[in-house]
Amino acid sequence: MPTIRVKIFEGRSDEIKREYAKALTDASTKVLVCEAGTVDVIFEDIKKSDWATGGVLWSERD
């Protein structure tokens, strides 16, 4: 049913992604009243040089 796309900076471990996917799935099943097996979580790892906020690349921030 729900597909959740998560865009995050690259470098997060599989353990962290697993924990976050579980938390998103748990919240989705509670709020949307659906089965865990119907919840998809897709992680997209983004390089800091490919993401800008306020016109400034994240790779150029302190």
TrEMBL record:
Reactions this protein catalyses: (2Z,4E)-2-hydroxyhexa-2,4-dienedioate = (3E)-2-oxohex-3-enedioate
Keywords tagged on the record: Isomerase
GO molecular function: isomerase activity
EC code: 5.3.2.6
The 4-oxalocrotonate tautomerase-like domain, residue ranges: 2-58
Entry-linked Gene3D superfamilies: Macrophage Migration Inhibitory Factor
Keyword Isomerase (UniProt): yes
Biological function: Catalyzes the ketonization of 2-hydroxymuconate stereoselectively to yield 2-oxo-3-hexenedioate.
Subunit description: Homohexamer.
The family this protein is said to belong to: Belongs to the 4-oxalocrotonate tautomerase family.
Name used for this protein in its record: 2-hydroxymuconate tautomerase
